[in-house]
Amino acid sequence: MFETLRGEELKNQERRKERLDRGIKARTEGLYAIQSWREVLYLIAPRASLIVGLLILPLVLPGLYWQRVLALAGVYALLAVSFDFLAERVGLVCIGGAFMIGVGGYISGALNYYLKLPIFLTIPIGTFGGALLCTLLWLPCLPLRGIYFAVVTFMFPFLTTSIILAGNLFEGTEGLSPIVGFPNIWIGIYLIIFILLLSIFGLRRLCGEDIGVVFSGIKDNDQAVLASAINITRIKVYALYIGSMIGCFSGAFVAHFSGFVGVSLFAVDFSIMPIAACIMGGPGTLAGPALGALILSPLSELLRGFGQLRVVLYCLVLIGFILFKPEGLLNWISRKYHQTEHWVKV
Amino acid sequence: MEEQKKKIIQVRNLSKSFGGVKALNNVSFDLFEGEVLGIIGPNGSGKTTLVNTITGFVKPDSGNVFFKDIRITGFPPYKIADLGITRTFQVVRPFLSLKSFKNLIVPLWSPRARRFASSRGGDRDAVAIDLLEEVGFERDAYVPYKSASSLPLGYLKRLELARCLALRPEVIICDEVFSGLSMSEIASMVPLVERLRMRGVTLIMIEHRLRELFTVADRVVVLNFGEKLAEGEPQQVMMDEKVRRAYLGEEIKI
Questions:
Q1: Does A224 touch chain B (CB under 8 A)?
Q2: pTM of the prediction?
Q3: Tens of pLDDT along B155-203?
Q4: Is the CB of A229 less than 8 angstroms away from the CB of B124?
Q5: Domain boundaries in chain A?
Q6: Where would a tag sit more exposed on chain A, N or C end, judged by fewer CB atoms within 10 A?
Q7: Cβ contact, residue pair B105, A210, below 8 Å
């Protein structure tokens, strides 16, 4: 307290911020965590608040409109989690979110429209089959790194849109409609919330396993992973399949939730928005990008009147966070949660 | 004596050009089981290209590499490492975002390491820390638990060696493990190399530090402008007229 007060008087050049772990953080590491309720609560609170918050959110929302907005935000959140996992944990900067949505949506939509398959079959087929298709199509580009892989994946939705329109496939510009919807909106909303939580916690767990270490090895230095007798293409394929699975599920969900499948599924929003959400929420945290998407998506809904200007919002958020808070929301929150800060004299 | 030994790697007429530069020109030599072979030569003589072609990181234009009668030319790097030929990088390539011992989880996760894994195979962390201790990471000072980004170069070079060791290699190709280290760091590195050799690992050592190399090497191959100048016992090679000329230049008569 004394230090803080004195810090106010110091000039900027004379002071620096000292950060110390809270005592409780050390006390909750390892087995010691179970020594008291306070410690247990400290550990559980962040996870529990995410789970409980997401479960309660649909119940407190005012009406059908905002419940639909939440479902769409869930779709964006899943895309953001997928983007974050691929880019920050494996080093595959994949901005083909729109392609995953489109492929997943068209597969499950077409199965329902032409073959009249029920929804509980089309969504899994769209998820797993779509992920397979995405992975196979992106397989030749896997040796590319960083921005080059990003450019190729970004291009795919445009390519597919052109093919669908030029070949008048799947009813061309008209799109496939009607696609059977969910029995009621609650099933839809809670399905996407369940999958979102499953993806966040599942991916966090996966990244903590040994294969997660190999993933981050590929991100840090793929040549050294090659020299460690590991086929990096195979590992990248695993990761890409997992990431596409999340994206394609979102696509299948959108198709059934909106009851329509068309080229609008390949909209550039689905590719760009996850990046903004990821930067805003905290790159590499998995839960952060989901949080970012859950904030950004309703915000952009509020600005619906401005039409295409919404993209400007994403750009502003992107620039603002990169310049002023590059660590992102969740990293900032977790720092406040785990550490105390105060000014000290240099 | 040498005829009784088994050839573990045979390099035959290896050539590689980058544009107009002949990095390797018809290089051939043998590596015998259990020996330490030094490869020396002035800067730009093709030493690192040789390592890259043997380990598959660069495809040769012509020529072949054999590993125990298997032709490994054109194999991808991970397959060559899977056979047991491992390498270190001259410019160290640690996984900087990971802790030191987590760096070794990557090779320990590889199919080759898992084939060798004993009953302790499940606990890769413990194996990794043991390996790090073997190459000189002081466990008592918690060095294995430090982030790789905080380690000085000496430790990073050892980490490279540990990454090779995690694969239970038959051959380790060390690309300048002594370069950039202080005299005392080198002095502690030499016994490590000796220990590796006593464990039966065959070593190829690319070096500029001739004095340290000659204390451990059995034979030496000299490269210059991509061509093999000489091959033989260290002392005998350094007496060679061509080698002296390559290293020291022409004698000037006044």
A1: yes
A2: 0.90
A3: 999 999 999 999 999 999 999 888 888 888 888 888 888 888 888 899 9
A4: no
A5: 64-338
A6: N
A7: yes
Task: Specify the fold of A64-338.
Answer: ABC transporter involved in vitamin B12 uptake, BtuC (1.10.3470)
Residues B117-142: tens digit of each pLDDT: 765 556 888 889 989 998 888 888 88
User: If you search the block for the tokens 């199965």, which residue do you land on?
Assistant: A111
CATH of B7-248, one of 3.40.1390.10, 3.30.420.40, 2.120.10.80, 3.40.50.300: 3.40.50.300
How far away is chain A from the Cα of B246, in angstroms, using its nearest Cα? Answer: 32
Q: B90 vs chain A: nearest CA distance in angstroms?
A: 12
- Minimum-distance CB partner of A228 among B81, B97, B98: B81
* Chain B environment of A230 (Cβ under 8 Å): 78, 106-107, 109-111
Interface with chain B: mutation pick from A88, A211, A213, A234, highest number of B CBs within 10 Å: A213
